[in-house]
User: Fold Acetylornithine aminotransferase from Knoellia subterranea KCTC 19937.
Amino acid sequence: MTGTASSESQGDLLERYTRSLITVFGTPQLVLERGDGAWVWDTDGKRYLDLVGGVAVNSLGHNHPALVAAVSKQVAEMAHISNFYTSRAQIELAERILEIAQAPEGSGVFFGNSGAEAIEAAIKLARRTGRTGIVAAEGAFHGRTTGALALTHKAAYREPFAPLIPEVSHVPYNDIEALRAVVTEETSAVFLEPVQGEAGAIPADPAYLRAAREITAAVGALLFIDEVQTGIGRTGDWFGFQASGIVPDAITLAKGLGGGLPIGALVTFGPEVTGLLTAGQHGSTFGGNPLVAAAGLSVLTSIESDGLLRHVSDMGEHLATAVGSLGHSEIEGVRGRGLLRAIVLRSEISAAVAAAAREAGFLVNPVSPNAIRLIPPLVVSREELDLFIAALPGLIATAKESSS
Ligand SMILES: *Cc1c(COP(=O)(O)O)cnc(C)c1O
Assistant:
């Protein structure tokens, strides 16, 4: 069973972790050492099927040969140059992103290093309208930096850091009339996720996004779609908003774009919105450096050449159907889109199910007390998903035993 097990145990390493890191993440569950495709190994050599995928980041899985080759080549040429200069990789990545987003002439890309930074850029863009109100949804997650945190809904994340930026309102998600009631000529921008990932893979009704487009356009407010988790093929389309047929004013990207390398982006649609941020008004030292840009290009190229959009749709459907046909009394259903899914349970045992899963060699995310989120690499195979689905009834049984 063991691979390249080191002499130091997981427990010893985690002990060192707690002595040396600020434990905002609590104590991590495992010390991982390597990965391949949808699989990872811990330092004891134990193998896990990775259905968390670095929280929707490892789009091509671990150790993908195209990503490894692209990043290795780029790091050997040059990794970083600052934004006083640009690189062919950065320009090509921006062009490719605009193409797959079907962005009109005059659109543009700003590169940062994370989802929160993409949101920060979007907040600054919104401020440039001269208006100050921002509307976001209940259940929304937009990041942890102080600007983005004001848009994130969860009180436990926000309250220790109050006061945050003012004039942010949260409205019930998927409620058209609530949105209409709060968006006014003082609203600079409305921020919405096409699927609320951190809230447990709750999809927006396409009619809701279309109504949001009309409501914002009617008062001259901007519509920003946060694609940090849903973008780059996660839903089976390049971007989550595309299924609704709307044209947003901007989208934010990060997680899946770099395939594991840290990159975020704000994409503005059309010359008017793009022109709101001018030279000197924003910046980033690392943003879009050649190394991460090469990674992003490699991810986009592989998604296309490996037919992954279709694969994601198929695997997402398969997962929902196969879990449904277990006919398990404890499972209420599967929600989400593509490979951003949550198995909804009838009782609050998701943490115990995730613990049983880990023991059995599966990594899953108990995103809320009664929901297990599955956000595997886009390359995960049907056979790999079936291993988990077949194990699920046993995992639920173990969880029920341990929590009774
Ligand atoms: C993860 C996430 C963010 C924040 O991204 P970070 O890279 O963690 O800063 C923002 N928005 C959404 C929708 C996310 O899922």
About this structure: The mean pLDDT is 97. Residues 114-116, 119, 141-143, 193, 197-198, 226, 228-229, 254-255 surround pyridoxal-5'-phosphate (CB under 6 Å). Residues 67-305 form a domain with the Aspartate Aminotransferase; domain 2 fold (CATH 3.40.640.10). The first helix runs from residue 10 to 20.
